[in-house]
């Protein structure tokens, strides 16, 4: 499963000829390669997967995606104990 997380670009730099940046993802700064989104500018939002910014998105899309992430976490979708949470219909799936 691929998980791409939205964040806001806060810094741009050049590293060995590659366009790189720092993306604020829910208050955590993470480094990302910006080569797939060469037109991105500071203040814009992007989705990041495996250290690569993949797509420029607007603030509304970023906020909705983060809301869904929070909902998944709240419902135990990423349970670190390894237990599978009950599904809403009472079974496990």
What does this structure look like?
With 93 residues, the chain is an alpha+beta fold. The chain is built from one helix and five strands; from the N terminus they run βββββα. It has a five-stranded antiparallel sheet with strand order 3-2-1-4-5, covered by helices on one side. Strand 1 (5-15) and strand 2 form a beta hairpin. The model has no long low-confidence stretch (mean pLDDT 86).
In short:
This protein is an alpha+beta fold and 93 residues long. Helices cover 17% and strands 39% of the residues.
Question: What is the string of helix and strand elements?
Answer: EEEEEH
Mean pLDDT, nearest integer? Answer: 86
Q: Give the low-confidence spans.
A: none
Structural class, by secondary structure, is alpha+beta
User: Strand order across the biggest sheet?
Assistant: 3-2-1-4-5
Topology, number of strands? 5
What is the gyration radius calculated from CA atoms? Answer: 16 Å
Terminal CA distance reads 16 Å
The proportion of strand residues reads 35-45%
Task: State the major sheet.
Answer: 5 strands, antiparallel
Number of helical segments?
1
Q: Please tell me what the overall shape is.
A: elongated
Please bin the fraction of helical residues. Answer: 10-25%
